[in-house]
Write a structure and sequence with these properties.
The chain is an alpha+beta fold. Helices cover about 20% and strands about 40% of the residues. It holds the Pfam family PTPS.
Length: about 110
């Protein structure tokens, strides 16, 4: 089994749709640390599971963006961001989104 992990930091903004009072319903920003793990039994003809640049291209959709616009109707919580990314990255098995120090959400397939 081949495992490839890429860690990136992206800056963006979002606001959450919540059914309770929270300052997070206001527009605010983060420097998210996003860690993507991909796996495959085999590598492609180039010797890769997924080119690191392909992972970067997808994660960078969040960089300097309003995440609400990128994700459409999906509430852009860290949990939903992790799943949204994992669903779009080939061979993805895990994405962790660190929103702030000590607050990490992980999605695993």
């Amino acid at each position: 089994m081949f495992t490839v992990t890429k860690r990136m930091e992206v800056s963006g903004a979002h606001y959450l749709h919540l059914d309770y009072e929270s300052k997070c319903t206001n527009l605010h920003g983060h420097n998210w640390i996003i860690t993507v793990t991909v796996q495959s039994e085999e590598v492609d003809h180039n010797g890769m599971v997924v080119d690191f640049s392909k992972i970067k291209e997808i994660v960078n959709r969040f960089d300097h963006a309003l995440i609400n616009d990128v994700m459409g109707d999906i509430n852009p919580t860290a949990e939903n961001m992790a799943k949204w990314l994992c669903d779009r990255i080939p061979h993805c098995v895990r994405v962790s989104v660190q929103e702030t120090e000590g607050n990490v959400a992980t999605y695993e397939k």
